[in-house]
Hints:
Layout: E1 4-6, E2 14-19, E3 22-30, E4 33-37, E5 42-45, E6 50-54, E7 59-64, E8 71-81, E9 92-96, E10 101-104, E11 107-116, E12 119-120, E13 129-136, E14 139-143, E15 149-156, E16 159-161, E17 164-166, E18 171-174, E19 180-184, E20 189-196, E21 204-206, E22 209-211, H1 214-226
Antiparallel strand pairs: 1-8, 2-7, 3-6, 3-8, 4-5, 4-7, 6-9, 10-11, 11-12, 11-13, 13-20, 14-19, 15-18, 15-20, 16-17, 16-19, 21-22
Amino acid sequence: MGPAKVTKEHGLDIGPHPHTGLQTVTYLINGEALHHDSLGTEQLITPGQLNLMSAGLGVSHSEEATGQYDGTLQGIQLWIAQPDATRRDEPSFEHHGELPRIQLGDTVATVLLGEILGVASPARHDTALVGLDLDITTRATLPLREDFEYALIVLEGSLTINGEPLAPGELGYLNKGDDQIDLDADSRTRAILLGGVPFEGEILMWWNFVARTRDEIEEAFDSWHEDDGRFGTVASQLERITTPGPFWREPPQR
């Protein structure tokens, strides 16, 4: 997200919209944003803090200007597919005002999710995974789990990973099997490391829904379109977001 200029009246400005079967993880580097959801949550998030919303069977939320912040907004929002064990649960929300940090040479790693070297995030996770915010001065060597897939996202600066350059706007994928990674930065760099055990089986995603079958996605879309109560109500002044139906459906008859 960003970096982008926001005002007290206009920020992310994402009106109420639905989710199923996933966790949204919002983490800011700069700025402020306001979260509203159908659970009745109203939560301000500022740099270094983390919001985690577990959708389960269905939740809706908005992301808005705070009414008090004017400046640069920058961060990242991750969508984490929930496993079968939790993806049909009732929705929930949690906010973490402080996250643990670990020093790795001249790199500071903030543990967003999961754990590294025995330092664990307080945030919920439904599968084995890790998320780190890396503040790299010149070089970092990170331990890896050999059963995880990993990816790196550069927010500011640039990295060389095992000889390959990685710039903002690109995602560097690391396959399973390595036990460490060497990162080199020409200047101070901010990057996100993500990792986790690969899912078994196919996951489907369409619009804001994560599911296993098209039928599940169609049921969720119909519930939102018909406003049948499944996704609740969000206390927001922003317009409720709608979209045409799934692309595989026959167009309506006229």
